[in-house]
Amino acid sequence: MVTIGFIKGLFLGTMASCFTFIVYYGMFTPPVRNIVPVGQLQANIYRPLAQRAALKKNGNCIVVLQLQGFLMFSCMPNVLAAMNELLSQSQQNGNSELPHFLVVHLRHVTAVDYSAAYGFLAMRRAVKALENWSLVFCDLPANVEVVLFRTNCLTPADQFFVHSSLNAAMEDCEKRLLEFVNVTAPRNSIGDSLDTDGQRALAIALTGILEPLLPPAEYEAGNSFADAVTELAQHWQVRRCEANEAVWSAGNAANFIAIVSQGRFYTTKETQKLKSVVEHAEVGAVLGYLAFCTHRDRNCTLVALTDGELLTMSWAVFEQLRATRPYLVHALMLAFITRSATEYEFHCNLTGLAM
């Protein structure tokens, strides 16, 4: 009798523990941390206005699903339901011919039970069944990555779609999307007539800004933009930078503006709590214009991520150019204002990267 009672008690205790475990992790800890609305998140990389406009127009091509907690079989139906909702929203509002990406963010996932692997396999099959869709994983904890590879939810062939951070995943997806829609600057029609990296960088910065301001009498039709860029390039100085070199620091006087002509740079901003990267800058990025135009000190630090070159213009040259070629300075100022308005909306979207 004692033996039978002990076995029954052990069985009931085990069942109660399993039930409590399933209820606690499957119901009380929501597996879906956040469903990022379509088109509401972008990578913190500087892009020309034409590319920003293209990403805004086709933002529904990239959707983000953020998961959290301990994932096991009882919570995977909720995950798949959230995925289906995202896919449905994107398909309703998008162009099916463009590449689409489902980004699964796993930074806040503590562990994945092998019993939950079927859910990720179902996710993989669902995305693969859709035309022009790719499944992207990012911020995988080491223990989660092991489970996904052992259960074939991920394979070595998927390495191109596994990223170290949400920002890296967004940057790669945006790059693939922009390559498909062929939004590049300078345009091919003027690219052949621009000889130097500096001229091409200026073309990227001023495409869509400079053309309406050109006096038609001064330039031949069809080649005015390239001629104006070539002329404007003569007023900039080339500054070569080595990797990890600080171009300027927060608190420095803003006595020049800069445009990236080679390499990659990034800006950082320090607060009392942390030091964070604000934005990555590539060719065509206009940097430091707000402090330059308002005669204020720099509010961030600019650092070269790789060896590169900057085009710089001092206040003296800027004033001289304004006296001799006012429409070129007008184009620069308009580019700054347009850029500032776009940056405000862009940085609002960046808040999601901290989630």
Automatic annotation (TrEMBL):
The chain crosses the membrane at residues 6-25. Residues 213-339 form the Cyclic nucleotide-binding domain. Pfam families: cNMP_binding (PF00027), STAS (PF01740). PROSITE patterns: CNMP_BINDING_3, STAS. Residues 62-173 form the STAS domain. Keywords: Membrane, Transmembrane, Transmembrane helix. CDD domains: CAP_ED. This is Cyclic nucleotide-binding domain-containing protein. It comes from Octactis speculum.
